């Protein structure tokens, strides 16, 4: 028995919004055995289980009447290697960005565009994290999860995961699968993705003509740091809203009054609109109500200036949603998980 269950614990250090709610029970899982113990504890004490990683995609609006289990398992290993590349496995509790740097240091390409995303390896598949033209699904090999209903281990390959834009089977069935470790298919010969937004331009400005994956990673870290607040200094959960998919007719209607609307046509004829653009146009950029606000440099990011409660942040998000719907006829969907 190694699981150390504590009672009545503040979750402020465990969510990047820095919201101060309390958990009825709290424990950290360093191994598969700890996870099994937590599942047994939850059943034995009839207390629900809430699993968290880095707490970077989470908005807590009340005290958590559950056993909060923070995944803290560590370990990175190559499980298969040939001349082209390797399959690298990481435990769920590995912090994401140091893991990306570790693979780059081993000469493996594939994760560079996903640099500096907060959170953990185990949380990354939940919402199919993505940035600068690459999503987790593009480099995903497989994962091991535990079925919380039966306690059995199950392997998932790409086709099983139903990955979509910030979406997956695991996100849609949150209380069913607990991700233990994830494997990525990485390559020794880099195919770089430089065509999203300012990445190529940034490298050119630095005089880098033949970028390595490490150059790309550094450029993306610089771009992200300029626009996205560091949760260590300003509470936030990254993009708070998803970029909405709308019909071409809706875009045409918006263009009548806002010819500069930013959108990306999709293969199915729909258009993915830049939610940050809509929110900025509606005048919310830099807005602040008490300690809850909209980031001054990136309207998709809600921030906690200090003492904002989850309820206050949620109320602000709902005001923005209602306003964007009224102005543009577009329903914005929240990205973080709400409790
Ligand atoms: N824009 C504005 N005003 C703003 C923010 C954005 O006009 O305040 C416009 C930009 O000018 C640009 C467009 O919106 O033309 C897109 O902006 P950006 O490239 O910064 O990306 P994003 O759509 O705001 C998405 C992801 C980010 C990811 C970046 C880069 C979502 C919800 N967000 O943001 O992911 O880092 O692209 O790939 O898809 C996250 O999910 O937490 C996250 C940070």
UniProtKB/TrEMBL annotation:
The active site is at residues 166, 239, 335. It is found in: Cytoplasm. InterPro entries: FAD-bd_PCMH (IPR016166), FAD-bd_PCMH-like_sf (IPR036318), FAD-bd_PCMH_sub1 (IPR016167), FAD-bd_PCMH_sub2 (IPR016169), MurB (IPR003170), MurB_C (IPR011601), MurB_C_sf (IPR036635), Oxid_FAD_bind_N (IPR006094). Its EC number is 1.3.1.98. One of its GO terms (cellular component) is cytosol. This is UDP-N-acetylenolpyruvoylglucosamine reductase. GO terms for molecular function: FAD binding; UDP-N-acetylmuramate dehydrogenase activity. One of its GO terms (biological process) is cell division. Residues 19-189 form the FAD-binding PCMH-type domain. PROSITE patterns: FAD_PCMH. Belongs to the MurB family. Pfam families: FAD_binding_4, MurB_C. It is an enzyme of class 1 (oxidoreductase). It catalyses: UDP-N-acetyl-alpha-D-muramate + NADP(+) = UDP-N-acetyl-3-O-(1-carboxyvinyl)-alpha-D-glucosamine + NADPH + H(+). Pathway: Cell wall biogenesis; peptidoglycan biosynthesis. Cell wall formation. Keywords: Cell cycle, Cell division, Cell shape, Cell wall biogenesis/degradation, Cytoplasm, FAD, Flavoprotein, NADP, Oxidoreductase, Peptidoglycan synthesis. Its cofactor is FAD. The keyword Flavoprotein applies. Its main location: cytoplasm. It comes from the Bacteria.
